[in-house]
Amino acid sequence: MLHRTEGIVLKTFPFGEADLIVTFLTGGYGIVKTFAKSPRKTRSRFGSSLEPLTHSKISFWGKEEAALPRLTQSDIIHPFDTIRSSLQCFLRASEVLELTLTFMPERDACSRVYGLLISTLHAMEADCGEGLRVLHYKLKLLDTVGYLPRLKGCGRCGRDSESFHLSQGSVVCDACSKGAAVTFRLSPGVISLASNLLAWDTAKIQRIKPAAGLVMELSRLLDEHVKYVTERELKTRAFRA
């Protein structure tokens, strides 16, 4: 069966001498791994359309349950070359792709995440910023997939608290925590920043001008939360400035 959709290349992996395994986030099928025949040859019909970050119209052939359908066509819609021209911006975009691969299950279509990724990459191409766009994407993605940490109101009783417990994925008040070790003492500004980023869409977040210390504090908390949930550290974190 032939399937047609649009997709963003998240990852490629060499297979044999000239073939590739290409992982897309698609609009109609979620994350799809495909087999591309001979794209590493000089005269490949795929050209540069299989570079990570590339947004393309794609076709792939295979049964619904096929683990590795064959990619038959890939036509570039937008290459996001501007992101690749800046090492720092490319590293930030790579973190966005890794987060998507980490939290999105295969063949589970989610138009909200697909649209968020497209809008984030376009926004990064226009202005990569100082990491605020990655922070915004991370919060929105975690919210969509159900892993957003609770930063406002005790996770057990709802009372105000600034004590975040990594094992609970939530702030927990002193009465409910019963002396358990606190992972982070959150500043009020961090709680407010997270709420604002969740409420604003991608096109408007550059209007927010948070202090660098608040961005670093929230980034560190989310990094540790993601590490705890996934039981591993993101590879792209090692390259972050």
What does this structure look like?
- The structure is a single chain.
- The chain is an alpha+beta fold.
- The protein folds into 2 domains: 2-79, Nucleic acid-binding proteins (OB fold (Dihydrolipoamide Acetyltransferase, E2P), Beta Barrel); 82-151 and 186-239, de novo design (two linked rop proteins), CATH 1.20.1440.
- The protein is built from 7 helices and 8 strands, in the order βββββααααββαβαα.
- Strands 3-2-1-4-5 form a 5-stranded antiparallel beta sheet. The chain has a 3-stranded antiparallel beta sheet with strand order 7-6-8, with no helix packed on it.
- A hairpin with a 4-residue loop joins strand 6 (163-165) and strand 7.
- Helix 2 runs antiparallel to helix 3 (111-126), helix 2 (87-103) packs parallel to helix 4 (132-145) and helix 3 packs antiparallel against helix 4 (132-145).
- The mean pLDDT is 92.
Fill in the keyword field for this structure:
OB fold (Dihydrolipoamide Acetyltransferase, E2P), 3-stranded antiparallel β-sheet, de novo design (two linked rop proteins), 2 domains, 5-stranded antiparallel β-sheet, elongated
Q: What is the top-level CATH class of the largest domain?
A: Mainly Alpha
Number of domains: 2
Sheet-strand content, in percent, reads: 15-25%
Low-pLDDT residue spans: none
- Tell me the major beta sheet: 5 strands, antiparallel
Percent helix, as a range, is 25-40%
The helix-strand sequence is: EEEEEHHHHEEHEHH
Overall 3D form = elongated
- The number of strands is 8
Strand order of the largest sheet: 3-2-1-4-5
Provide the CATH architecture of the largest domain: Up-down Bundle
- Let me know the average pLDDT: 92
Gyration radius, rounded: 20 Å
The CATH topology of the largest domain: de novo design (two linked rop proteins)
State the secondary-structure class: alpha+beta
Enumerate how many helices there are, as a single number. Answer: 7
Distance between the termini: 45 Å
